[in-house]
Amino acid sequence: MKKLLIAITLITCIYLLCACEGKIDTKVAYELQESCAKKAEQAMKNEYPLQRTYESHHNLKLNKCIIRVLNIGIDPSWKTTCTDEWLFDANERKKYGEYYYCSDRPDIPFGGNIEGKDCKNLQEWQSFVKKMMTE
Questions:
Q1: The dihedral sign for the CA sequence 103, 109, 114, 120
Q2: For 19, 68, 96, 123, which has the most beta carbons within 10 A of its beta carbon?
Q3: Residue 14 lies inside a defined structural domain of this protein
């Protein structure tokens, strides 16, 4: 009887562990996002003190605080509004990628990279950003 009780207890524990795997408590997720926002603010003050347009997200899958920075301005050589945006880790300061484009002038060269590889187009970049900023 004692062995049966031990077996049932072990099976229950294994079941509960499997059922909870990959899930995170809402409160914990909120705290991670809040902590990430504070880390992002500090990282931006240290790395890009003049840059004001950014957003942060704690990527649960990677367990990383990701910062998306947008630098929108007039490109003096093309005389048009262009965007340079990049993603980096708030803790390690690792850059995940960068993309440069001018939305109103498709004739202007654009480009970027995602984790060291060439980024083919704006849609590929936006897909990567969405993945990093929503997981």
A1: positive
A2: 96
A3: no
